[in-house]
Amino acid sequence: MPCAVGTLTITSYDEDTWEDLAGGGKLARVSVRQALPGDVTGEGCVEWLVRYLDDGSAKFVGLQRISGSVAGRSGNFVVSALGVFDGNLAEGTWTVLDGLATDELAGMSGAGHFYVFGMDAAFDLAYDLE
């Protein structure tokens, strides 16, 4: 299975608290847009649901749509993401969702990891294209 590696840059970040929790922490919704150069080229948009703790750490889940190209093939695909934030670095896993890839990426499957530091991130994505 080929593995794409690359970076992404956050181009917009919008966070809204939807509930301050009794006992500390909060629940938030975060909308992010990204630019992706490299093995996966294009744009990403992700919606995160975040559970912050009082110490600033967090756990999050989200869905991310990437529009662009992988290995020279164009289309869109969607990944589910699960991760943790220690107050400085966020890291997590991606899983390509079956049946949501389009155009030349239709049938794509795969999984990977991401690491976010500030407004930049690095990722790897092992993938299979039908």
Which tags fit this structure?
eight-stranded antiparallel beta barrel; AOC barrel-like; 130 residues; mainly beta; 72% strand
Written description of the protein model:
By secondary structure, this protein is mainly β. It has a single domain, classed as AOC barrel-like (Beta Barrel), CATH 2.40.350. 0% of the residues lie in helices and 72% in strands. The protein has no helices and 8 strands. It has strands at 3-20, 26-36, 40-52, 58-70, 73-85, 89-96, 109-117, 120-128. An 8-stranded antiparallel barrel has the order 1-2-3-4-5-6-7-8. The mean pLDDT is 95.
Per-chain topology:
Layout: E1 3-20, E2 26-36, E3 40-52, E4 58-70, E5 73-85, E6 89-96, E7 109-117, E8 120-128
The CATH homologous superfamily is called: SO1590-like
Mean pLDDT across every amino acid position: 95
Topology as a string of helices (H) and strands (E) = EEEEEEEE
In DSSP terms (H or I, runs of 4 or more residues), the helix count works out at 0
Q: State the total count of DSSP E strands.
A: 8
What general outline do the C-alpha atoms trace? elongated
The number of domains is 1
**Major beta sheet, strand line-up:** 1-2-3-4-5-6-7-8
C-alpha-based Rg, rounded:
15 Å
Percentage beta strand = over 45%
CATH class: Mainly Beta
Query: What is the CATH third-level topology name?
Result: AOC barrel-like
Question: What ranges have pLDDT less than 50 throughout 5 or more consecutive residues?
Answer: none
Structural class: mainly beta
In short:
This protein has 130 residues and is mainly β. The protein has strands spanning 3-20, 26-36, 40-52, 58-70, 73-85, 89-96, 109-117, 120-128. An 8-stranded antiparallel barrel has the order 1-2-3-4-5-6-7-8.
